[in-house]
Amino acid sequence: MNTHKYTLIYLLLLPIFGFCQINPLELWYNKPAAVWEETLPLGNGRLGLMPDGGVTTEKLVLNDITLWSGSPQDANNYNAYISLPKIKELLLAGKNAEAEKLVNENFICTGPGSGSGNGANVQFGCYQVLGNITLNFYYGKPAKDVKYTNYNRHLDLQTAVAATRFNVDGITYTREYLTGFSDDVSVIKLSSGKKGKLNFTIQLDRPERFETVIGKDNSLVMSGQLNNGTDGKGMRYKTVVKTQLKDGTLSSANKTLTVSNATEVVIYISSGTDFTDKNFEKTVDNTLAVALSKKYDSQKKNHITNYQKLFNRVSVTLGESIKNTLPTNERLDAFAKNPDADNALSVLFFQYGRYLAISSTRVGLLPPNLQGLWAKQVQTPWNGDYHLDVNIQMNLWPLEVANLGELNLPLKDLMKNMVPYGEKTSKAYYNAEGWIAHVITNVWGYTEPGESASWGSAKAGSGWMCNNLWQHYLFSDDKKYLAEIYPIIKGSAQFYNSMLTIEPETGWLVTSPSVSPENSFYLPDGQVSHVCMGPTIDNQIVRELFNNVIAASQILGLDAGLRNQLQQKLAQLPPPGVVSPDGRIQEWLKPYKETEPAHRHVSHLYGLYPASLITPEATPQLAQAAKKTLEVRGDDGPSWSIAYKQLFWARLKDGERASKLLKTILRPTLATNINYGAGGGVYPNLLSAGPPFQIDGNFGATAGFGEMLVQSHAGFIELLPAIPAAWAKSGSVKGLKAQGGFTLNFDWKDGKVAKYEVLSASAEKVKLKVNGEIKDITSKKI
Ligand code: FUC
């Protein structure tokens, strides 16, 4: 009903205010969120805020990216290496099931590891919700009798401000929410259209381990300490809520603040943990005092200016018609029926991915975790941790192409901290040099294998993260940064260099034991096994990493000895892909029959994306085999898996298929039960669903969208490498990035690039593929 009303108003106003478009970069709704998956995520890279826009009760979920239970630990089995020769021998003899038994006995972590994904109270710990703010409103009658009209709730991606607006008894109430990019606090501004009509209470709590008290000057102070998994005395946190009123009064009792007869109220939330700041309690108070000393309007202006420094670097249009006339949840339903009528939703989803990246991480802090920054539980799914067998990597994949490269730096910091732990793990399990991390990590430097061979003994984690570090170098060309990451990537290469083992049938150097992430296969005798030698992903990662370390050592003029060694080993590595008798890229060294042909992980195409070992130009046969691999895997899965397939098809230059996968992610869902199979999609708030909510689908699809418009991994920049017919008619790109530090502006008509500009810090020669032709051009100095 309301939808039609808004559409009608818009259509009526359009001739009068022809310039006044409904904001194309806005998520909007005509009712309050009924479930968390409908609430709107705000974040400033540290603090998160998710308001539900409730009329009589509004609940806002609070987050702090550093809030983790658990603590640093040593879960290495220092005797593991003793069983290594036996495990390798069994694998060489084809006795994988027996090898797997030994891995399960000796080659896992000591203790509970991740706690089977429920690690809140063990040392691994988990990322946790910070708390909830509850606002209970009084409109002069019982809540059940309150009727509201003209309801609108939205999130503006251009300003990083969300708002709620509605009428009760002829009075307009508005609320604005932001997580400050200028002052490091969360802010809620409430106004009533008539003097003195705001009456509500404020409460602050969390599900456990908290104490809320009334602080000085009628503030609410919540503090507590999480479980470290040993003596219970883990991370400490403190959150302070303070209000500023126009008109009316503020009182406090029973851990509750009461606002009476106000016209305007600004609520400030300042929060911190002792993760990196031992003086965090003082910092929380000081940050709050600074915020309180400023006017809301100038604060909001500074917030927008700072946010836009990142967000405004890129704009994209796909065709002329900008439609945002349906509430986002209804728009998703309409898109599912007729996706090609709404290209602008794909643009919105891409810009939302950029928004989510800017909101969930910042330079100097942590990378986005499995839920980015937004979590409503104490025990988050899979501990809300960093999974190293695709998830953390995917979270960072859009950053370079989408012109947010500096947001890659927190990964480097996380890895720097992991290295000393990973060196112990390398010694304990492999008696090897360098460092290794397996499948999961946390903010405490966890690098040990997981607690089960089926997934926990993958070798690719640390090597795969090195790809992300390297991408930032390729796109930034920043030698200082290269020198900083060099010890990390070198240490990772040293690990593989010293543990690779000869597979006698082929003579290839391979990892052993390992797994292809989370997948299993049938042995010739029908037994099922995960554990193997040299899964394809390991072979590709080792090849790529060795190449990168060789290049880095050359550029930096370091380690000639190691460089030579790696160069020699490169010649003994398996090729980037082995084609199976049925024409696919083999996932394992042998053409085993897989137990789950449509398994969600497609790790053996790592060489196609994010690496560039397989390209249609340089390795056409492998590219063909990759297509066959993807056909057999199918197009479904949790949303991260669908997004990965979107990326693969974009690299294979199949715009229609990439677009089909993007459309599949945009399937509306409200499912929240843990899913490993088909069924990914997005919630009404456009956050991606595994299910449950997992942000990698958003970030993967954002990277995929970029990869459909621009590619630069194969020795040249290509404009429009993989767009579907529905996007071909016309469009424009401003500000996407290519390797080498180039910025790209271009537009197209009827599938042909009509105008382009390649910009860089200094004029440089570069190869550009445009309208099917590779040209040598000189970039324009910015
Ligand atoms: C990997 C995936 C799962 C899930 C989890 C967080 O284990 O296989 O689907 O995404 O990470």
Give a short synopsis of this structure.
This protein is α+β, with helices and mostly antiparallel strands.
Task: Describe the protein in words.
There is one protein chain. The chain has about 775 residues and is an alpha+beta fold. The protein has 20 helices and 34 strands. A 9-stranded antiparallel β-sheet has the order 1-6-7-8-9-16-13-12-11. Strand 27 and strand 28 form a beta hairpin. Helix 10 runs antiparallel to helix 12 and helix 12 runs antiparallel to helix 13. The chain is globular, with a radius of gyration of 27 Å. The two termini are about 50 Å apart. The site of alpha-L-fucopyranose has 12 residues, from loops.
Mean pLDDT: 96
Shape: globular
Rg (CA only):
27 Å
Structural class: alpha+beta
What helical percentage do the residues reach? Answer: 25-40%
Strand content: 15-25%
Strands, count: 34
Measure the end-to-end span. 50 Å
Main sheet, how many strands, which sense, barrel?
Answer: 9 strands, antiparallel
How many separate helices?
20
Question: Cofactors and ligands present?
Answer: alpha-L-fucopyranose
Unreliable parts: 1-20
* Spatial strand order of the main sheet: 1-6-7-8-9-16-13-12-11
Descriptive labels:
32% helix, binds alpha-L-fucopyranose, alpha+beta, nine-stranded antiparallel beta sheet, 782 residues
How are the SSEs ordered, and which strands pair?
Elements: H1 2-13, E1 26-29, E2 42-43, E3 47-51, E4 57-64, H2 80-92, H3 96-106, E5 131-137, E6 148-156, E7 161-168, E8 171-179, E9 186-192, E10 198-205, E11 211-215, E12 219-225, E13 236-246, E14 249-253, E15 256-262, E16 264-273, H4 280-292, H5 296-311, E17 315-318, H6 328-337, H7 343-360, E18 386-387, H8 391-396, H9 398-401, H10 409-430, E19 440-441, H11 453-456, H12 461-476, H13 479-499, E20 501-503, E21 508-510, E22 521-522, E23 528-529, H14 536-556, H15 560-570, E24 593-594, H16 620-633, H17 639-651, H18 655-665, E25 681-682, E26 688-689, H19 696-709, E27 710-711, E28 717-719, H20 725-728, E29 730-738, E30 742-749, E31 752-760, E32 765-770, E33 773-778, E34 780-781
Parallel strand pairs: 28-32, 31-34
Antiparallel strand pairs: 1-6, 2-3, 3-4, 4-5, 5-10, 6-7, 7-8, 8-9, 9-16, 10-15, 11-12, 12-13, 13-16, 14-15, 17-29, 18-19, 20-21, 22-23, 22-24, 25-26, 27-28, 29-30, 30-31, 32-33
Helix pairs in contact: 2-3, 2-10, 7-19, 10-12, 10-13, 12-13, 12-14, 13-14, 14-15, 17-18, 17-19, 18-19
The structure holds alpha-L-fucopyranose.
